[in-house]
Amino acid sequence: MFRSLVRLQSRFGNALSLCKECPTSPFSLKYSTATSERRKFYQDVSISQGEGGLYEINLDQRKLKTPGGKLFTVPNEALAIAVATEWDAQRDTLKFYTMHLSTLCNTALDNPTQRNKDQMINAALKYLETDTVCYRVDDPYGLVELQKNEWDPVLHWIENRYNVTIGSSSNILGPEIPEATKDTFRQHLKSYNFWSMTGLEYVITQLKSVVLSFGMIDKHLSVEQAVLLSRLEEEYQIQSWGNVEWAHDYDMYELRARTAAGALFIQLSSESSTVKRKLLQD
User: Which family is this protein grouped under (predicted)?
Assistant: First the structure.
């Protein structure tokens, strides 16, 4: 029954369009509250390459700045084009809460929590102890079977992929994660640059799962699959008892938009190749 829901084919190809659909982000800064809007004050959006090869966003003749007052710069042209597209897509009113990529860039630039990459890695790994996929229920039987059928394959995949042991538990404290597993993941996360780690931590907080986040970033799961699997219990309850349709759909698309934006941000912040500026015009 649920298996058919998670067999969706779309992966990162539609992530940019998704990230423009729905609001809010817990990583948001002071301008990105759920109701934050502002009248549009520019006509043209462009990108330019500045000092050190970094790319800047120009709103008419003004250089974009972060909420903290820093010059808004991104490490490559691909990410600059994606951010410029968000600003160009705004109409009469700027809906900052829909601009997830811009918000993630601001987070990486301003670093409001003043953490280094090792601290971010430690925070991300804490989610292993309460990972959505690892915590199981004892009843009802239908949900027990659903968790086993849908989550176990992903859990087995990541254990084989990284040669680790994670396991699952119905104990309220969750499974006891071996230190060797944490060390393996820690070494893997150190391969991410600061920007990519910002995006990955964001995705993990959305899905409340290291397992599902890794599955999506490694393209074992699509964005839609990862989101549906993170909401497995809620989907089960909805199928059993029904739902307020608009509220369910809103929550689903909102989470999908944030997760897709995070996945795209990780991909683009790791991008080293140059993307032709013609893409912005298209």
Answer: Belongs to the ATP12 family.
Q: What is the model's pTM? A: 0.81
Task: Give CA–CA dist 13/24, Å, rounded.
Answer: 22
Residue 238: name the closest of 146, 134, 171 by CA: 146
Inter-residue contact 259 to 10 (CB < 8 Å): no
The residue assigned the tokens 């670093």 is 111
68 within domain boundaries: no
Structure tokens at 256: 């999908």
The two counts, helices (H) then strands (E), for the chain are 13, 6
Contacts of 230 (CB under 8 A, 6+ apart): 132, 206, 207, 208, 209, 212, 255
DSSP string, 125-174: HGGGGG-TTTB--S--HHHHHHHHHHHHHHHHHHHHHHT-----B-STT-
Where does 98-215 show beta strands of DSSP type E?
none
**Between 274 and 111, residue with greater pLDDT:** 111
Q: Which CATH number belongs to the domain containing residue 167 in this structure?
A: 1.10.3580.10
Segment 113-134 shows an average pLDDT of 94
Dihedral (CA of 264, 266, 267, 273) sign: positive
Judge whether 32 lies within some domain: no
The total number of structural domains in the chain stands at 1
Q: Is residue 259 part of a domain?
A: yes
Q: What is the mean pLDDT of residues 207-217?
A: 97
Neighbours of 246 (CB within 10 A): 8
Establish if 17 belongs to a structural domain: no
